[in-house]
Every structure is written in C-alpha cells, then in structure tokens.
Amino acid sequence: MRFGLCLSGEDALKGSECGADYTEINAAKLLGMGGDEFSRYKEYVKTGRIITYSCNGLVAPEVRLTGDVDYKRVREYSEKLFYLLAELGVTMLVFGSGAAKRVPDGFPMEKAWEQLFEVGVIFSETASGYGQTIAVEALRRKEVNIVNTVEEAAYYAETVNRANFRILADFYHMDQNNESLSVLEKYADRLAHVHIANRERKMTGDADREYVRERIGVLNKIGYNGGVSFEGELTKDFSGVKEMLDFYRVCADRL
Q1: Span 211-235, mean pLDDT?
Q2: How many CB atoms lie within 10 A of CB 83?
Q3: How far is CA 85 from CA 145, 159, 198, in A?
Q4: With respect to CATH, is domain 2-251 assigned 3.20.20.150?
Q5: At 233, which helix (H) or strand (E)?
Q6: Where are any strands of DSSP class E within 50-205?
Q7: What's 59's DSSP letter?
Q8: Is residue 9 left, alpha or beta, with left meaning phi > 0 and alpha meaning psi from -120 to 50?
Q9: How far apart are CA 182 and CA 196, in angstroms?
Q10: What is the mean pLDDT of the chain?
Q11: 61 phi, psi to nearest 5 deg
Q12: How far apart are CA 2 and CA 20, in angstroms?
C-alpha cells in the first residue's frame, strides 16, 4: 500500500515533506489555473517537490451529470481536464463529485442512473487514452442522493463495464452510511483506491488506533496494494502528519 495526503494548491508542496508517498490534488481547480501557475505546478512535479498519483474534485458542480445533462459539454470537460492531469502524471481519478451528481428534486432516479452510465462511458473512454483509472467514490447521504454505498458504486462500475472504471472505498462515508467493512471483501477485485480519516473527518491519532488497525487490516486481508489517501482536516502546521502516516505503514506491515 502507498499512503498519501489530499492537498490543494501550494499546500501540496508539504506532502513529501511530511513523508507522504504521493499527493492527491484537486482536479477541478486545475482548470482555473493560469498558464504560468500551471507551468509552475508542473515544474514542482517534474522536480519531485510534488509527487502526484491521484486527484479528487473531478467534476465542477456546474457540469451537470444528472438532470439537465449536456453530454457534449461533459466530453469536452473530460478531454480538457484529463489531459491536464496526465501532464501532471495523475493516473488515479477519484469520481465523487456529489454536487455534479445530485439528482434534482422530482427527477426520475432510473433516468439519473442511465445518465450516470453514459457519463461513465465517456469518462472511461477519455481516461483510457491517458492510461488513467476512474475510481467511483460513494458519498454519504447527507452530501448526495445517488451512489451512496460501495454496493452502489460497484453496481455503477459493473454496468459501465470498462476495465478502467472501478471503485473507491472511503471509510468516513462508509461509517456515515453504516456500511459494513465486509463489503470490501465482496468487491476486492474492483477496489482501485481508498480514503481514510477518523469518524469526524479529522486526522487519526492515538484515540483512533484500533479504528485504523481494523480498516487497514481489512485491506491487508483482501490483498489490497493500492493508494490510501488521508482526506480530512490536517493541523495548520502539519504537526503529527508524519507520525500518522508512519502508523498507517505499521498497520500495513511496511515498517
């Protein structure tokens, strides 16, 4: 397993300083960067000051994926963004994007799923051209009203039926939705990426050690060997982050 940190902007520079194996950057923010800013970011990657692997925040809220969907816009958005991500060496694309996925009130859920299937095909086709994988993230019900569980993410991936369209397990969202860890054994072959934090979506510390051992223990059991990104609130001065990552490695038998 590799252990990373979800960081945006200049904060991404601090990832490697804290001992992270990689940084998970915010994808949609790349589209707002000017040419000089993107070039500077790319130079950070080239020189190893930012170690890229994955991204989150894949779809901006204004790019509708259910309801009033413009598939031409979705395709153009993915082609532009996935290219930029490839320029930065990002190969794991986390697809949560609750605001873009949210089904409008009164809109038929069956139709919304059909729209997401079409979006999934578009994303997988675009990503395949850059050797990228899409990892569908199930989000807690308080954030979105579709694709809420690992079971539903697996159903989504199975229906899209593309080799590079897989699933993500976020332990925080699983806890919030009372989803059993045993589901990961069922879908181990589809699991491409993982997010971790404590039950309050903050840094895991001494009080969370059994919580972390149990979850990374499940990943060990199913033979998972991909990325595990901490996604949550970090200390402002990044104190304790290296120790947190080191404990993850202990649980994964990497130290």
Answers
A1: 97
A2: 12
A3: 28, 26, 29
A4: yes
A5: none
A6: 52-56, 92-95, 133-137, 165-170, 191-196
A7: S
A8: left
A9: 16
A10: 96
A11: -55, -30
A12: 8
Could you give the C-alpha distances from 87 to 39, 99, 130, 227, in angstroms and in order?
10, 26, 9, 20
Residue 255 has pLDDT above 60, yes or no: no
Distances (CA, A) of 108 to 104, 112, 145: 9, 6, 12
Q: Which residue has the tokens 């982050």?
A: 241
CA distance 82 to 91: 9
User: Which pair of tokens denotes residue 90?
Assistant: 């990002």
Q: Where are the domains of the chain?
A: 2-251
pLDDT (tens digit per residue) in 116-152 = 999 999 999 999 999 999 999 999 999 999 999 999 9
Distance CA 48, CA 13 (A): 9
Query: The tokens of 41 are what?
Result: 């970011």
pLDDT in tens, 50-99: 999 999 999 999 999 999 999 999 999 999 999 999 999 999 999 999 99
Q: What is the residue type of 213?
A: R
The candidate with the shortest Cα–Cα distance to 102, out of 144, 152, 137, 141, is 144
Q: Give 235's contacts (C-beta < 8 A, 6+ positions apart).
A: 203, 241
Distance of CA 236 to the CA centre of its chain: 22
CA distance 49 to 99: 31
Q: Give the pLDDT band of residue 254 (cuts 50, 70, 90).
A: low
User: Does residue 248 contact residue 228 with C-beta atoms inside 8 Å?
Assistant: yes
Question: Two tokens at 44?
Answer: 């950070």
Residue 241 burial class via C-beta count within 10 angstroms: exposed 0-12, middle 13-18, buried 19 and up: buried
Name residues whose C-beta falls within 8 Å of residue 82's C-beta, 6 or more positions apart in sequence. Answer: 93, 126, 127, 129, 130, 132
Check whether 31 has a pLDDT greater than 90. no
